[in-house]
Amino acid sequence: MRNTAIGFGFREIQLPTFEGLDLFTTKSGQGIVDELYAFEDKGGRMMALRPEMTAQVMRFYIAEMSVQPKPLKLFYFGPCFRYENPQSGRFREFFQLGAEIIGSRTPETDAEVISLAVSTIESTGLKNCRLRIGYIGVLRSMLANAGILDSKISEGLHLLDKNDEKGFSAFASEAGISEEKVAEMLSLRGIGGGEEVLDRVPSDDAKKYLQELSGMMKKIGIRGFEFDLGIVRGLDYYSGMVFEIDAPNLGAEKQVCGGGSYSLIPAFGGEEVFTTGFALGFDRVLIALEKEEFEIQSPGLDAFIIPLGEEARESCMELVSRLRKSGFIVDFDLMRRNLSKNLKYASSAGAKTAIILGTKELSSGTATIRDMVTGDQKEVPLDSIRDFLGSNP
Question: What CA–CA distance (Å, rounded) separates 346 from 330?
């Protein structure tokens, strides 16, 4: 995953595991506190283990990077913490990989972020995924045009994000929105499919933007995606394009990645700059790979060295050091087992070869090298072992 992000020109940044609580409440409101691991430190300050890392990136940008040339392409990886009800695919400690582009509002910027998200997941070997793209700005505009205050729009979007039609209808009715308008807003969630559904998008600006984005996506080789105006992403800082990637074999917790364009920097005192990004659930990707019976290949040991007797141990240590400096993955007997037990251990450790050093071998300046797959053995001069291992990958 790191190699994929680096290949896209993104730079990795390291972020602290805990922050001041206000960093997260500024972004998501006081209601999030019950979902966090929050605590008071010895200085009387309210702190929290990070529930995600987007807010941290914005703080870091304002404090250290705002004068750097745009665009800034940043990615990060690490553990996050939420006071969840633990279940499959939803943990109290989980790992997240994310990326942000801080720059200008263009379809190619959004296409770059989506492309990185898709390529990152594909790089793991996961096959069964579904990319859906929406535009939350449509619903935001409809709610604003209906007279909903900016401070209340996020409440309505949160209800839609939770698929709470009754709750949303009650919210809209209390705000004086007609039943006809409510039905129109709810019907947006049924607009989904290929590029042909964009003709049903009730906003010329959104339609044009998504059409341009679709063209960009095809040019960079991403196909098979769908448009879905029902994607809401109930966080109130999303402003334009939004997207989600699902792994259907995960069931209810099928979403492995989500993101979009957003406005968050002004909330922390910075000047408005277009930002777009995503967060990927590392644990869910691993679970999805398990569901597809994907076998993660371990590099194994190039060699396991077995010294037989006191005299051979010092020669063993010297040989281990030499081979490791040459780039081989090497281990050796620390338990002073006999030969048969060491060979059994070497097999369980996935060693390709076992190198046996005993009195006979030392006297002749050789080592016995055993192929752990075929069982074949060969005597090789000590000063030729590196070449022998290199020619037998």
Answer: 11
Are the beta carbons of 301 and 287 closer than 8 angstroms? no
Residue 246's CB: how many other CB atoms inside 10 A?
19
C-alpha gyration radius of the chain: 28
| Backbone torsion region of residue 350, taken as left when φ is above 0, otherwise alpha when ψ lies between -120 and 50, otherwise beta | left
**Phi first, then psi: what are they for 95, rounded to 5°?**
-105, 140
131 pLDDT exceeds 90?
yes
SS3 assignment, position 56: helix
Domain 2-291, CATH number (from 1.10.357.10, 3.30.930.10, 3.40.50.1360, 1.10.340.30) = 3.30.930.10
- Sequence ranges of the domains in the chain: 2-291, 301-390
- Mean pLDDT throughout 16-31? 83
pLDDT of residue 17: 96
In this structure, whether the domain defined by 301-390 belongs to CATH 3.40.50.800 is answered with: yes
pLDDT of residue 16: 96
